[in-house]
Amino acid sequence: MTTAFFPYSAALILTALLGLVFAHQRGKAYLMYFQQEEYDAKRFRHWLSAHHGRDRATSIFALVAGGLCFGLSYGFFWLEALGWAALIIGLLDGIRRSRRSLLQAKKPLVMTDRAKRILQLHILFSALLTGLIYAGVRFGAPTSDLAASLIAIVVLAQASPYFLMLANAALQPVENRVKARFLEEARQKLRRLDPYIIGITGSYGKTSTKSILAHILSSAAPTLATPGSVNTEMGITRVVREQLEPEHRYFIVEMGAYGPGSIARLCRLAPPKLGVITAIGWAHYERFKQIETVFDAKFELADAVAQSGGTTIVNQDAIPGHLLKKRLSDGMPFICVGSDKDCTLRLVSADQTPDGVRLEIVGDDMGEVVLHAPLYGLHQAHNIMAATAAAHSLGMPIDAIRAALSSAPQSRHRLEVVRSGDITIIDDAYNSNPSGFASGLELLDILKAKDGRRILITPGMVELGEKHEEEHHKLGELAARHVDIALVVTPERIPSFVAAFEAQKPSHAQLLRFNRQEDAQNWIKAHAQNGDVILYENNLPDLYEKPPGF
């Protein structure tokens, strides 16, 4: 009995220990995706279903072990050893797959205090519930240790993402208290320091406009802007608590809309005295479903600005006219920029040169002005106009604005032009909207060397809802006129783009398909030539690019 007892007892203990390691590593892997979905359980469940995020491999190994268990009933006790081996190998393979997912992530898991709390409670739930399942099967049936263990492991592998959501829900009261404390600290600091707050929102263009405006205002007075794409309540709160100083005269806040009421909530946190609305479009159609809902959500900024007696600058060319007309007729204070003759600041012409954007504008109180900024993409003309109107409304002379624009820095990963030897890179990895995509394609012709090729790498755009196929079809046709080699990542996501490109492309043009961004990048490393210009148009987060392979 002793010789038979020892190895199977050791196997049981080893399985339990590996189960804990599996719970930790698989929990971290799922937490990375959960974090990218901003801890939204509904969106995370959708990702699990749409992108085959549930476990397969470990469960299959466990089921193989289950098959071997049947041999015990026929007296083939040596099959039990194979069953334990299959179960242990399955756990080791599951740990390996989880580690691979974490190591290959383009956006790694950030172990914030909240993430740590969720992971710790996830491990506790995993240990308790699988332990109870093991005990219930083992002593309630009763059955063998192997059979009870494999059932517990299958439950662990399949339920791991749900344990994570359960942990998040259980911790919500704690998170709410922490969030409330941080928000109140930020509000008090804003009231105490009282910077001039400028809110910027829009379906697209808000980050670039924020960057341009921050550069202009910084030439006149100390200015703080929320960094990168930080545009959520807690992101803004952290910037206020950690970066806002008494010397900052201006605080420019990018405001993201994740549903009706989002902008209003941000305006209560950081009440704006001046607003900028860059565009109303389909960039986040999946969240809002109707363009009217997008409009109302973004114009919560204008409502808040009006309450403080301020003015909102709107890009009239990028906002549905029938919706804007009603707002303008309500008598709210707006400054309109755009191509229409009735705009306060009117665009006369815009040209893209190898050195940047040149635009001619006419203003009611500034006359005809020529501006130049070392930025790329003709859509930047409207961003420059909005920033110019904002700075001018704050009292900056147009000559000072023009001088500041001449040294405006490029926004990282937003049609950022970088030259690497004799190869030109257009990095638009963070810009996923039809307008920016089209600007990037048109820029290929301008920046291409005489004998160089125009190369596009793209996985397409996201969050376009029912406009997904239509917009990608249009861009596929446009790409056929401006691209020599198209490297399409996850082409099954954008069949209309692929079909339109292949139908319209000239005979010399090629379309190559890749499953991962990394594979397309490796092709570039092997085949790029001097004189090539390469457009990186969008870079899907881990949520979209490929199934996690669990």
UniProtKB/TrEMBL annotation:
Q: Which residues cross the membrane?
A: 6-23, 57-75, 119-141, 147-171
Pfam families per record: Mur_ligase_C, Mur_ligase_M
GO molecular-function term, one example from the UniProt record: ligase activity
In this chain the Mur ligase central domain maps to: 200-391
Gene3D superfamilies found in the cross-reference section: Mur ligase, C-terminal domain, Mur-like, catalytic domain
Domain Mur ligase C-terminal residues, every copy: 413-535
Swiss-Prot/TrEMBL keywords: ATP-binding, Ligase, Membrane, Nucleotide-binding, Transmembrane, Transmembrane helix
Question: Superkingdom of this entry's organism?
Answer: Bacteria
The record, for InterPro entries, names: Mur-like_cat_sf, Mur_ligase_C, Mur_ligase_C_dom_sf, Mur_ligase_cen, MurCDEF_CellWall_CoF430Synth
Q: Indicate what this protein is called per its UniProt record.
A: Mur ligase
Give the organism, scientific name.
Answer: Iodidimonas muriae
